[in-house]
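Re: Re: ligand-bound prediction request (bumping)

Still looking for help on this. To restate: I need the protein modeled with adenosine-5'-triphosphate bound, output as structure tokens. Inputs repeated here so nobody has to scroll up.
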Amino acid sequence: MRCFVAVELPAEVRRELGDLTRGLCRYLPEARWVRPELMHLTLAFLGEVADDLPGRLRAPLAATGARHPAFNARLGGLGAFPGPGRARVVWVGMEAGADELGALQKDVVGALVPAGYVPERRPFSPHLTLGRLRTPADAGAAVRRHFSGRGFRVERFVLLRSVLRPDGPEYTELESFALKAPAA
Ligand code: ATP
Ligand code: MG
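Reply:
Sorry for the wait, this slipped through. Here it is.
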């Protein structure tokens, strides 16, 4: 099966991101926008894995979650990979919580490596993918738009299964891992 580890978003945040992408459509008519209900922050993409892998990851990922306190986050600031002039991916960055997400991501990768995960070479860049372009396009005007989302709390992360269907991916939660409750 095809799997990845991600942080999910509250419904209100996905709703405002849906409003955002509807506003970006006219700048990039060729882009395929991610459906708001599927939006998430990817921590690690595992790709095709054996059916028994999720079970083997349960304990190490639970231990990882237990080491990281829940934190506040906020999405904001638009950008494009590999760059605004020849965009293939249009994304929204993080105005708050990027350091905490980065620390969590590093530790998640550490938990996946013993199970055979090969870490990406490039450094983790916290972002949420809003849209994709098959043919690179100039996203300069799109990413100059101002966006700052509402704050939300990150209290867990999930292991998701992805099934790619002709009409888009379908994600199913396999496991959910709680972050540490902050000391009272
Ligand atoms: P589609 O491939 O149809 O555009 P998708 O990318 O949303 O759909 P998946 O390909 O299963 O669905 O990817 C799941 C998540 O993992 C997405 O957030 C995606 O951006 C991320 N991802 C996919 N491939 C990679 C990769 N090679 N490296 C890093 N992240 C990846
Ligand atoms: Mg993909």
